Amino acid sequence: MDRNNIIECGGFYFIHNFDSGNLGHVERVPTELIAPTINLKTNTSETPDYEFNLWTRPDCAGTEFENGNRTWFYFGIQAAEPNVQVRLNIINLNKQGKMYNQGMAPVTRTLPGKPQWERIRDRPVHSTDDNTFTLSFKYRTSENAKATTFFAFTYPFSFAELQIALNSIDLKMLPLPSPQSLDDIYYYRECLIYSLEGRRVDLLTITSHHGITTEREQRLKNLFPENQERPFKFQNKKVIFISARVHPGETPSSFVFNGFLNLLLTRNDSIAIQLRKLYVFKMIPFLNPDGVARGHYRTDTRGVNLNRVYLNPSLTYHPTVFASRALIRYYHFGYEKDEDLFEDSKSFTSRSIGNISESAEFTETKKKKNLAKGSDYKREKSSSAKALSRNKSSTTIKQVSNEETQSVSGEAAHLAEQVHDMKLQEMPSQMNDATSYVDSNTNLEETSSLLNDNVLRSCLGSTVHLSTSEELKMHGGNPLRPLRETLKNSISLLMESNNSIAGDSSMESKAARLANVKMGWCDECQRAVSRLEDTMPGIANMVPGYSAMILAETPKYHSIDEYREHQRQQIDAQERKLQDTEFPTDGATVYFCTNCFKRYVMSEFDEEIKLSEPLSCTSVGVSVCVGDNGDVCVPAARPIPNTDDAIVLQTGPPPKEEKPKSPVKTVAKKKPPPANTTIAPKVVYKEPDSGLYLYIDLHGHASKKGIFMYGNHFEDLDHSVECMLLPRIMSLNNLHFHFSSCNFTERNMYLKDRRDGMSREGSGRVAVLKATGLVRSYTLECNYNTGRLVNVLPPAVRDTPLPTAPHAGMPPKYTPHIFEEVGRSLGASILDLTGQHPNSRIPCSEHRNLSALREWLRAHTRTMRPQC
């Protein structure tokens, strides 16, 4: 029986209708079927008085976005009898056998009586039968018949708890008194944006009054919905950006966040004073408040892993990440800047070629899995749907209108999101207001000659079925209609953007421009395919419309002198073109890239016109090959994209002439080209003149032991050393931080998830590097259970040295206190980065100083990298 989301079973009441609660279904095991177990402590046989089978709710349970994340559980039990033994079997969890083999155990508390969370005393037992993972544990009911005993996957920290904590800080800190000293705390709390379900996403600003100005920060477009002034700006102080809970079930991140926050708000702590003096801290405690409140483990309310959409988040579907990325760019540039067109080659090739077909295959696989599901969970779906509708936090919730919550459904939504992610830029007009989509659709009739089925099909690729106009007019909802309309809207917006002449808005001029609109492949996509051809021979012939176009624009020459003369003519023509005009001429042809939807313009010389690039930033990359008849053959010259402040493109040496390869040899295995003959542009990140100093996104981790960081990979040795410096210092300041477990590999930047196939390239850590060039961009991970080691910390300079050297103990079970200490150690390590820690441990360590520490990391990096 399920009354008001309280499940009654066998006289016991199972409670789950609260913030972060998660329980789906309960069944009682008949008394005669309860099997005895051996008590490992007493080595005697015990038979519980009661036994129950429990099912958790997967993320987005009962909705079209339901997915396979079933690790988080959190519920309470009011027992029918006091002081009886009960066995609980949670039988539909994700397979986390490795973690539970290492001693992981759920946590429990009893209200009233034992309000503090602690791990259950008896070690749980797990088993796998018919591919179903079951976790079993026992407990004894309270003597108080009115008490409720709670159980959770790990130490919870709910959205309501966060709001209570922040409100208590507000009471202590606000309103800010007149500063008596420049060291006084400057604290500011504001609502950055509302989540999909209307929960507030808080942004905290913490610093001192050093460098304060009378100017306030800019109110960014679509952000800061409440009528509240922005905080003041500060001179000569860079921003440190810290966020947590993008994955709602990873609660250790909140405790690390709280430890760091409590340090910053300590008035008389020397480390906190120095941190506030040097930096402005921007902190987002919950990036996924909806997922937290609904008891999800990894995704938001639409089943999206938000830590995979940072490259191109949607204000409509991913508002919290959209806001976070907008803030990061604002603090990096110092002003609100539109998104750049440039993407490095690694990013482009991993997200463009075959993206639609892969997503279609993934959707079909997911559909088959859903059809093959057993009936264990189906019977409680209807009750779970009702539970979800009521399971909203009652505090600080903004009511969202129907128009704002209207979403695309099913597999069409997945495909539409892939289309959205593939765009190289998000046009400003797309997010101006809620009516932009409707307005753009009203203009589609004027462009029907362009936006026909053939054009849409060329955008989607040959593997995706496109509904005809007649099918779309059928009664009922057509699953591909949202995808078709998304494509039309995207192309329509691209056409209207930067494609009008001042004072010329007549229908005749529009018709004339549309006559020159065609589909093709932009230079960046062509280069991507060319690079893939080296490792995937024949891919150019598999891409629709690519090979014929390239052959048509690849001229042949009978001598090298003729080729060089043509190159000089091309370069001269390009210089004249850029000097004459910044806009396409009347005779220029407007194209939309078949692969990425980018709008570009081709000149009369069949060259892509770069409208926004100055001549000084344009260079031409040329490769030469010999044709079958001995003629010199070169692809059309293509300008390299303009770089921004944080990225420098370095081109390798010119290629040597190669002999023609027969089709048979192309299919056969071939040796990789020597390292010194590569011609693909190489992305090198440099420390920009940025307002951003450090980015850290906090997480929890199930499989890998310890507390550690993920950093990005750099070919440049000095950048690698700077990236590793903070994690190495953390291991000198914290007992439980594992530098040996940190990962700085390129593979870890682009690894795809096994479940959803999404790349870590879309994570905050990698996307911040790509957007800003920031070397110090990290993910900090905390294992839920324990670590592999305990560090021996060197003494601080001003501390009294111990008479005997301390010995490393056994790794303890991690608790909120240990996670909070990690947050405090992070503050000390940030000061050590620049040698401004008032009581550092580095002088008493094996390294003695920062210079020697960098040299140690330089040698460590050389050892870890493969020798060429």
UniProtKB/TrEMBL annotation:
Location of region: Disordered: 364-410, 644-673
Xref: InterPro entries: Cytosolic_carboxypeptidase, Pepdidase_M14_N, Peptidase_M14
Gene3D superfamilies: 2.60.40.3120, Zn peptidases (3.40.630.10)
Protein's GO biological process: proteolysis
Cofactor requirement: Zn(2+)
Domain Peptidase M14: 155-498
Compositional bias per record (Polar residues), positions renumbered to this chain: 384-409
Pfam families, per the entry: Pepdidase_M14_N (PF18027), Peptidase_M14 (PF00246)
Gene Ontology terms, MF aspect: metallocarboxypeptidase activity; zinc ion binding
Active-site residues, record numbering mapped to chain: 471
Family according to the record: Belongs to the peptidase M14 family.
Xref: PANTHER family: CYTOSOLIC CARBOXYPEPTIDASE, CYTOSOLIC CARBOXYPEPTIDASE-LIKE PROTEIN 5
Protein name, entry field: Peptidase M14 domain-containing protein
Source organism of this protein record: Leptosia nina
